[in-house]
User: What shape does this take?
Amino acid sequence: MNTSYNFAAGPSGLPAAVLERARKELFAHGDDGSTAFEQPFTGEAFGATLARARARLRDLLAVPDNYHILFLAGGATQQFSMVPLNLLGNAAHVAYADSGHWSQRAIREAGRYAAVTVAARYEGERPLAAPPLSAWRLPDDCAYCHITPNETADGIAYPALPDCGDVPLVADVTSCLLTAPLEVARFGLLYAAAQKNLGIAGMTVVIVRDDLLRRPAPLVPSSCDYRAQAAQESRANTPPTIAIALAGMMFDWIAQQGGLAEMHTRGQRKAALLYDAIDASGGFFRAPAAPVHRSPVNVRFELANSALTAPFIEYSARRGLHHLRGHSAFGGLRASLYNAMPEEGVRALIACMADFTRSYG
Amino acid sequence: MNTSYNFAAGPSGLPAAVLERARKELFAHGDDGSTAFEQPFTGEAFGATLARARARLRDLLAVPDNYHILFLAGGATQQFSMVPLNLLGNAAHVAYADSGHWSQRAIREAGRYAAVTVAARYEGERPLAAPPLSAWRLPDDCAYCHITPNETADGIAYPALPDCGDVPLVADVTSCLLTAPLEVARFGLLYAAAQKNLGIAGMTVVIVRDDLLRRPAPLVPSSCDYRAQAAQESRANTPPTIAIALAGMMFDWIAQQGGLAEMHTRGQRKAALLYDAIDASGGFFRAPAAPVHRSPVNVRFELANSALTAPFIEYSARRGLHHLRGHSAFGGLRASLYNAMPEEGVRALIACMADFTRSYG
Assistant: This one.
């Protein structure tokens, strides 16, 4: 019986069923006597693990045939460099929408390789909101436009996607991929580090439309060349085999639970419960984001009396509710409600907030 | 009872004791309820895992204080790009010794970022041998000189290290790190992908002298900037947490077995047994490398009658001896004898070779 809940922004908790399956399958000896930890990654056993994970993800997201699915080593920050290195081609510049902490980091890194047009600027004024799509300024001749649909640190999300015309839309969906259905065809490239909704740290999924692989990438490291990785089925460099195996188990689990529509329903319900409790606290707790921009996966909130932040974190940890501290750039509180967080975890947090209010209010 | 042996060039088998420990510890719930798969990598629990692994490796190799130990995502091919990107600085060129397949791949990748002087050229003539150190041509003004002390695919090793004077020596020690004591102070930088002697796929260890971090690296991706990774203790990007935990367990196991001197003794004995059996086969089996250049960890050999290669691989697999196929570039046979390979595995292979000879000779 799990009486602890992990509200960290990542790595997230894993469903108990996935942990149990991992414990059984990762240590099982295959025909060649090897466990998943020891299989040659050029061999049949790992090849089957890789193919199954890819097929399952393609199925879950209804990824069109003209998109490649890559499982690459490292986290999203590595893709902050690899996206411009792979996609810039002969274009003069790239466009980025600034919507907070992580898109700003993506912009800084892209600026080392290309001229960046900031298509929309985050103001950071309260209530927090992603920049309005109507104000986007998007030059025709940029190689792509980059968006961060969910800002993990700021706790805000775009209510809708921009229309970028012929400019390929590139998205860092690290914290929201597989939390809801997504129309892949609207994007040129999607990337997501695995440790939130897709398993464990050390792997990033890249989904890329095949025509974007044709652009020259003279200085991209071979290990990060999307074209080479697509041609070699993510094995152009040593793949993160265990992270890929775990991602496959997460994909299976999501499918068994009812797929992305079900994840979306559950996610909306969990987020509504928590935001409603914050809003109903009479100002004792408060959420800084405008309602329509509130992230359903990273609920950022705070205590009106900031002197109570540390006591609340300690109080909740004693009740088995862990890692509620806000991002270091902002302080306050944050509850991340990824797919593996059960509704009981959210209800336990709400009960804890009520009890804390009674004791300290 | 393990009756199968994994002779793959990587990932290698893991010691049974390490697998058992992983099964127990990776799934144990910590104070916050999280398993190793779920711990925040900025948190205390993973911080302790990281610090222990680093301290143990420093101890095993007697790494001097002025060297940083980094645990980075990805494999050695990624470092083929990152070494020149991090170390080129303002130098006009870099020097590489060509000793076979993997050093040639390192040279090709470095050539995309810098002018490469090939300090020594591999001839590939039989008997196979690394280029003699006496013939090395090493310009004073190169940023570093790169060597691959053990060529995993070719099955050859340098019998001694070159004297590069003031030029920092950089080595890809992927297949030989921790198989013998090594004088770290002779190197400016060492790197090794983990899946041979240090655990599982998806992580590379970099050991780098701190003065080499001062060189400017204008285009190195932030996630691969050694300076940033040193400053942030390998967490400048999402670290491969499980691979780091496994590496720590491998370091502990090596220490418990008696450390690098013991690994060296065992390795020499295993290699001598196998090469002696090959040499004593009356030419039925043969090793293409000159005796003094024979790799102790990657024993490349072949059947005089190459039509027997496939039947031998099948025959040995039926006896639980797996992954003896040679590197795809060369064909033939290869038995990798990393630290986790017990002497019984080598004896089983020798017995299998003798039986096969009786049946097919």
Summary: The domain at 260-360 of chain A is CATH 3.90.1150.10 (Aspartate Aminotransferase, domain 1). Chain A touches chain B through 66 residues (CB under 8 Å). Chain A has a mean pLDDT of 95. The radius of gyration of chain A is 21 Å.
